[in-house]
Design a protein that fits this description.
The protein is an alpha+beta fold. Helices cover about 30% and strands about 25% of the residues. It has one domain (about 5-75). The protein has helices at about 5-15, 65-75; strands at about 25-30, 35, 45, 50-55, 60-65. The protein has a three-stranded antiparallel beta sheet with strand order 1-4-5.
């Protein structure tokens, strides 16, 4: 996916409620975050700038840079 497709996929997951409200406790930005992006669903390469986010109610989420931007700007729900 290209960044704009990632942004759109993340926004859709927020809109449908597949992602929890963006009420994070800590954020660790940088390279070396690995796994699947919880925003767009695509793999995060070790060379990607990404974010590891720890939430209040669940262990945590990982995001590409552009996916975290969309997630972080979403209004909190609940």
């Amino acid at each position: 996916m290209v960044p704009e497709q990632r942004r759109n996929a993340t926004q859709q997951r927020i809109t449908t409620g597949e992602l929890p409200s963006p009420r994070w406790l800590t954020v660790r930005p940088g390279h070396g975050v690995v796994g699947v992006c919880d925003g767009c669903g695509e793999a995060i390469a070790t060379s990607d700038f990404a974010f590891a986010v720890k939430l209040q109610d669940i262990a945590g989420l990982n995001f590409h840079d552009e996916c975290f931007d969309v997630y972080n700007r979403a209004p909190g729900r609940g």
